[in-house]
Write a structure and sequence with these properties.
alpha+beta, 6-stranded mixed β-sheet, two-stranded antiparallel ribbon, 12 strands, globular
């Protein structure tokens, strides 16, 4: 996939002051790069995961959709916009209430593969997330009806159907792929 760079090279500060519009952008290598426009499966899976994770994280942290995160990638400013982000109140206190990008690496980012994206792109992005301090990366594949959980760059597990996703980093969160796809009304 060729990434379409919009406009001139920007600083992170300039990127963060761009006005919000109909298109979401990520900040990559100094450019505002448009995110893929989500289709139905992507949208319903994002909503289902938001509902399920939000119910679990009440009092523990916050979950957000399409929320930019300020990170570093290969020594440069990077502001990816994962489909979902979970961050505990330990990393970003409950008292933090600003309408801006997430200022610290979250525990979990979730990316959902769109039809014109490849799994390899997300494996590479997972490596960048880990290098930037993110603790877990989930990649949801709507076509395969699976979720690949990256525990680290070297360790991952593919979950399908009724396999229970449990993680000591996210105590008390127990989900199955079937549960997510049923919540999305895709089963």
């Amino acid at each position: 996939m060729v990434k379409a760079n919009i406009g001139n090279k920007l600083t992170l500060e300039e990127f963060l002051t761009l006005s919000e519009g109909d298109v979401n952008y990520e900040f990559i290598d100094g450019y505002a790069v448009p995110k893929v426009s989500p289709k139905y499966f992507h949208s319903t899976l994002q909503t289902a995961l938001l509902i399920l994770i939000r119910a679990w994280c009440k009092g523990k942290g916050r979950v957000g959709s399409e929320w930019a995160i300020i990170l570093k990638r290969k020594g440069q400013d990077w502001a990816p916009v994962p489909d979902l982000t979970y961050i505990s109140y330990e990393r970003l206190p409950k008292s933090w209430r600003r309408n801006e990008a997430c200022p610290v690496p979250p525990e979990l980012v979730i990316e959902i593969i769109s039809p014109d994206q490849t799994f390899k792109e997300f494996e590479d992005k997972a490596k960048d997330y880990f290098a930037a301090g993110v603790s877990r990366v989930w990649v949801v594949d709507p076509e395969a009806m699976s979720i690949k959980v990256f525990f680290s760059v070297e360790s991952s597990q593919v979950y399908t159907d009724n396999m229970l996703i449990v993680d000591e980093l996210l105590p008390g969160l127990e989900l199955t792929v079937r549960q997510v796809f049923e919540e999305a009304e895709l089963l």
